[in-house]
């Protein structure tokens, strides 16, 4: 793998495991509305999608007002319990620190809210390591739209050829493809190596140490 001037990351299942918090938040909302048959694995398979997309899948309801109401309830649950139920992967701090020491730019592009990502990072990471965070509230079109990724590249004043996007899901792989940047998959989540390898990639790694 070549050296890049910037390493831009997805957050959930890429830098951190927030699956326990995500499952709890969805479960509390879904149970409240009588959707008790959705499994933990069903929930984990939607990590990386927007809240509206996920609730539509779980409930088979596509009404925007209904989905917006469930989203509001989820955000309230997440404000209460998400950060305490999110942990960085063991290698995350060391890998990001090493990349930063090599003078690379570090960024995060996620469907998760920026303030929630920052809450987690502030507990675990030097504030000078991450150069830019693009969250779900910062874009009009969520991933796999390349909007957030392209915006980060523009803000960092970089060429696409000097950027690597790292993520755990096919949504991330599609995002990199639409943005015309290199992609590296990481197997921290529920997406398989074969699923990631079906997209253009420079690597599919067991964990983030593969970047070093």
Automatic annotation (TrEMBL):
UniProt keyword list: Hydrolase
Pfam families assigned: HAD_2
Reaction(s) this enzyme catalyzes, per UniProt: 2-phosphoglycolate + H2O = glycolate + phosphate
Enzyme class: hydrolase
Top-rank taxon, per record: Bacteria
GO molecular function: hydrolase activity
The enzyme's E.C. designation: 3.1.3.18
UniProt pathway annotation: Organic acid metabolism; glycolate biosynthesis; glycolate from 2-phosphoglycolate: step 1/1
InterPro entries in the cross-refs: HAD-like_hydrolase_sf, HAD-like_sf, HAD-SF_hydro_IA, HAD_2, HAD_sf, PGP-like_dom2
SUPFAM superfamilies in the record: HAD-like
Family: Belongs to the HAD-like hydrolase superfamily. CbbY/CbbZ/Gph/YieH family.
Protein name as annotated: phosphoglycolate phosphatase
Annotated source species: Heminiphilus faecis
């Amino acid at each position: 793998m070549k050296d890049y001037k910037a390493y831009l990351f997805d957050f959930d299942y890429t830098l951190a495991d927030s699956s326990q918090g995500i499952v709890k938040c969805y479960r509390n909302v879904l149970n409240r509305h009588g959707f008790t048959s959705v499994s933990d694995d069903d929930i984990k398979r939607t990590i990386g999608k927007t809240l509206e997309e996920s609730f539509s899948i779980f409930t088979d309801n596509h009404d925007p007002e209904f989905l917006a109401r469930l989203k509001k309830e989820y955000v309230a649950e997440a404000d209460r319990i998400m950060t305490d139920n999110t942990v960085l992967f063991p290698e995350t701090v060391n890998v990001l620190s090493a990349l930063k020491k090599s003078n690379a730019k570090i960024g995060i592009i996620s469907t998760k809210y920026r303030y929630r990502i920052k809450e987690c990072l502030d507990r675990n990471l030097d504030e000078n390591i991450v150069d830019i965070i693009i969250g779900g509230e910062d874009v009009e079109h969520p991933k796999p739209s390349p909007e957030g990724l392209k915006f980060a590249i523009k803000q960092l004043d970089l060429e696409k050829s000097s950027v690597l996007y790292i993520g755990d899901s096919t949504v991330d792989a599609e995002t990199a493809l639409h943005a015309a940047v290199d992609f590296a998959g990481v197997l921290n989540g529920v997406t398989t190596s074969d699923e990631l390898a079906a997209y253009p990639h420079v690597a599919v790694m067991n964990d983030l140490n593969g970047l070093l």
